Model the fold of this input.
Amino acid sequence: MASVTPDYDYSTGADYPGDEEPCDLDPNPMEVITQTYIHSFICAFGLIGNTLVIATYIFYKRTKTMTDVYLYNVAVADLIFVVALPFIIYNEQHSWLMGPVACKVLRSAYSINLYSGMLLLACISGDRYVAIVQARRSFGARSHTLIYSRLICSAVWVSAVALTLPTLLYTERFEEPNLGAQTVTVMCQLSFSKNETAKLMKVVVPSLQMAIGFLLPLLVMVFCYSSIVCTLLRAKSSQRHKAVRVVLAVVVVFIVCHLPYNVSLLNHTLSLFKERSCEAEKIKLQVLAISRSIAYLHCCLNPILYAFIGVKFRSHFQQIMRDLWCFSKMYIYNARSSRVTSDICASGRMSSDGSNNMTSFSA
Done:
């Protein structure tokens, strides 16, 4: 059986003894097709969900809380990734035809989404903790919420970009001849010219992803949401059980999506500089790929867990659907039908007290 030894050239992740058969670590065609379908599903639903969240906050939700600002930025972070995902899929299957710049940018897109999205979810849990558990103490301090939330979001984005710099700087597109064959494999991954840099970065990059992209947000969420659940259970409210279920759903989905990938990433990092059997390496890479796809799925679930579950947000979203329906009729029917439809749309926005709740689409 072929073996994979410690990474001597620090560009491909493997070096093979000359007296053994080469280890082919390329995924089989069925795995590629399956991943393509899964990532296409993630891309489609993530694009729709996060676009609707952004549109709702831009055009309809005028009064924004700190959580609203965080949710808007989470949707932006997720949207950046789902837009980049189809290009990543295409390039991985076509030898990175878009070149070295696309290689760097697309590989960095997930890193920025990971850090910014996870830190913002931690901020949301912190804001809910302050609003529910520390409600009396924080009442006066929350008068400047928009200023604070925008400053915090700016700090999160700056931190995400800074933490992504190693990925941006060291990710390269390069060609590697296949041993025992007259073909060349084109790769886009971390590549280094010095062994010392390689040893450092191949541990630092995944360690940062696990520590700041998973463990830190998880600890903040567990502490904040545990305190929130305790407060809700003590409160005499008919809605408390529903609120507790929502909190538990948020934490469980976060753990289910991200824990498998981070455990696989930890196992991969610990074995980087050890000799591995070819078969074990194949299994490890398959598990890493599957768990990564599960982690990607979280960007589709964020809009449902954090935005659409709220009553106020759903009412604004329903208003979007009504407006789009009315405006589509205006363009489909003739001029006379358009005037009738316009009157119906306008009257549909009249509230029970007779006031006209015209939206930004109508402005």
In short: The first helix runs from residue 29 to 59. DSSP finds eleven helices and four strands in the chain. Confidence is low (pLDDT under 50) at residues 1-19, 338-342, 346-363.
